[in-house]
Design goal:
With 239 residues, the chain is an alpha+beta fold. It has six helices and eleven strands. It has helices at residues 48-59, 70-87, 136-142, 189-192, 197-204, 210-223; strands at residues 2-10, 20-23, 28-31, 34-40, 98-103, 108-114, 118-123, 126-129, 172-177, 183-187, 230-238. The longest helix is centred in the N-terminal third of the chain and has 18 residues, at 70-87. The radius of gyration is 17 Å and the shape is globular. The termini are close together.
Length: 239
């Protein structure tokens, strides 16, 4: 399988700094394996930008074609954050989400995920969320205590239940076989809190190349208010 990828990040219209990180930082193309990820440093916490950057650099330290699986990479990222806090107590409280994917030569896709950044699979005209939101409201919806229609206005919609850097963490994982024409979209909640899934689907199925699609998504989030940092990575699979 051959892959074409692009990434982009923007501060948004409200925040005074960007606490998101993305890997890789440049667009590219080639056969697998490759690793792609998005991390969203916890806004309002100490050094969210340091947390997201350190987590992603640790998770991508091993070569994509090594035997280090995606879940192991995220676990290592968590351990690196905890070690940094032990060394620098002033950073206590920093944390980050992480959504990380590894794309192999044979079309296998490995996903590992913690937090409320997301990974979507676009196949044909359909958009499917592969990751689970580790948030209070997502748990309430799963338990039947909250309607999905009420999530957007809920006062606790931004409270995450799993993050890297604050202690032991359970890493969600998934593996699937990609098909020719599949598109994977990774994004921070700066996109999904501003742009609903229907509009995301419309933009990502418009036929534009990955880089143009990313900036169309970022523009849509900023046009809707841009209240948070916005980060997107897209990988197209081509047989």
């Amino acid at each position: 399988m051959r892959y074409v990828w692009a990434t982009g990040t923007h501060q948004g219209r409200i925040r005074d700094r960007n606490e998101d990180s993305v890997y890789p930082e440049i667009s590219g193309a080639g056969s697998g394996p490759i690793v792609v990820g998005v991390a969203d440093g916890m806004g309002g916490h100490v050094a969210g930008n340091i947390a997201s950057a350190l987590a992603l650099s640790t998770a991508t330290e091993a070569s994509p074609d090594s035997d280090v699986e995606t879940v192991e990479r995220v676990v290592s990222a968590n351990e690196a954050l905890l070690e940094r806090v032990r060394e620098q107590q002033e950073l206590s409280g920093m944390g980050t989400t992480m959504t990380l994917g590894r794309f192999l030569d044979d079309g296998t896709f490995e996903l590992a995920h913690v937090g409320d950044s997301r990974c979507y699979l676009v196949r044909g005209d359909e958009l499917r969320q592969l990751s689970t939101d580790h948030t209070v409201v997502a748990e309430l919806v799963a338990l039947g205590h909250l309607s999905p229609d009420d999530v957007a206005g809920h006062p606790q919609r931004h409270l995450v239940t799993r993050t890297l850097g604050l202690g032991p963490v359970a890493v969600e994982s998934d593996t699937l076989s990609l098909e020719d024409g599949d598109r994977l979209v990774f994004c921070s909640d700066g996109l999904t809190s501003m742009v609903n899934d229907d509009d995301i689907r419309r933009i990502v199925t418009a036929g534009d190349d990955p880089e143009a699609t990313i900036w169309n998504l970022i523009e849509a989030a900023n046009s809707a208010g841009g209240v948070d940092n916005i980060t997107v990575a897209i990988v197209d699979a081509r047989a």
